[in-house]
Amino acid sequence: MHFLDQYESAGFRAATDAERSSDDERLEFERRFRSKAKGGVLNDLPEHVLYELTLGLAARLAKQPKKLTRATLQKVAERVWESIRADGS
């Protein structure tokens, strides 16, 4: 499992056709979820900080041996959103 995670995260790995076709979806997602200063709905935090507070946290939680309940995950998601959304979003 750890090897697969490292392999998928490695910069030298060639993208698959499915990954290349999802680039448009990723770009649209990034367009919507960017800092308020750039027209998005998020706090004006550095991009790497936003990543760690969102997808980084989700990835680490998913790797934990003890699975969280749906209610707990919902609560975590709500708290994360509160911490990264721009005022009024």
Describe this structure in words.
The termini are far apart. The protein contains five helices and no strands. The radius of gyration is 15 Å and the shape is globular. The relative contact order is 0.11. It is mainly α and 89 residues long.
In brief:
With 89 residues, the protein is mainly α.
Secondary structure blueprint with pairings:
Elements: H1 2-9, H2 17-21, H3 23-32, H4 47-62, H5 70-84
Distance from N terminus to C terminus (CA atoms, Å) equals: 38 Å
Q: What would the average pLDDT be, to the nearest integer?
A: 79
- CA gyration radius, whole angstroms: 15 Å
Name the helicity range. 55-70%
Low-confidence stretches: none
Number of strands: 0
Percent of residues in beta strands?
under 5%
Counting helices, strands and paired strands, the structural category is mainly alpha
Q: What is the chain-wise order of helices and strands?
A: HHHHH
Secondary structure tally, helices: 5
User: What's the overall geometry?
Assistant: globular
Largest sheet features = none
Structure keywords:
89 residues, mainly alpha, 5 helices, 61% helix, 0% strand
